[in-house]
Amino acid sequence: MNLFYAPDIGGHIHTLNKDDSNHLVRVFRAQNGDTVFITDGKGTIYKCVITDANPKSCQVEIIEAAAGKDKRGFSLEIAIAPTKNISRFEWFLEKSTEIGVDVITPLLCDHSERKVIKTDRLNRVLIAAMKQSLKSHLPVLRELTGFRKFISQPFKGQKFIAYVDENTENELFHICRPDTDTLV
Fold it and tell me: Which residues does 79 contact at the CB level (< 8 Å), separation at least 6?
C-alpha cells in the first residue's frame, strides 16, 4: 500500500497536487479505477478511486474515510537541540515520526551550533516519513525555541530530561507512567 498526503482533502472529489499526481500516474503507473489511500495528517485515512489519471492533476473520488490506527490516548512530545550536521537531525525526525511522536520542538541552547533551521525542508522530511511508515498523523514541528523559554512553558503531564549515564538505575521505560502526556 502507498499512502499520499493531502492536508485539505474532504468532500467527495479531491485533486492531488502536481507532485503527487505525477508520482502516482507516472511512477506507480496508476490508472482510472485504481485504489489509492490518502491521509490528511490529522488521523484520517481516505480510501479513494482514481477518476482522472492526469499526471498534472490526478482526480480521485473518496469512497471511505476511516480513523488511522496509530493514535494513542496520550501525547508524546520531544524537545531536542538540532545537531550541526542537519542530516542527523533529519534522521531523528524520520525516526520520531515512525515511532509516533506527536510534537517536536527544536531547542536553541547556549552552546547550540545550529542557530537557524529550515522548517519547510524539515516539514517535507516529516511528510515523507509519515507516508513511508503509513502513519495517519503528521507530527507538529514547532519553531526553534530557546531552552529557557521552553522549560518555562506550562505542560500538563510528566516531564523528563534524557541524559547518558552508565550508572543510571531509573530508565525512562520503567518510570514513565503509561497513558499520560509525556515530554522528553
Answer: 104, 105, 106, 107, 145, 150, 183, 184
- Region 139-165: what's the mean pLDDT? 87
51-99 pLDDT, tens digit per residue, is: 999 999 999 999 999 888 877 778 889 999 998 889 999 999 999 999 9
pLDDT of residue 131: 94
Q: What is the rounded distance in angstroms from the CA atom of residue 99 to the CA atom of residue 82?
A: 19
Q: What percent of the chain has pLDDT over 90?
A: 60
DSSP-derived 3-state class of residue 76: strand
d(Cα 59, Cα 141) in Å, to the nearest integer? Answer: 29
Helix ranges (DSSP H) in 25-138: 86-99, 119-132
Q: Which CATH number is associated with domain 3-67?
A: 2.40.240.20
Closest alpha carbon to 135 in 60, 181, 72, 82:
72
CATH second-level architecture of 76-183? 3-Layer(aba) Sandwich (3.40)
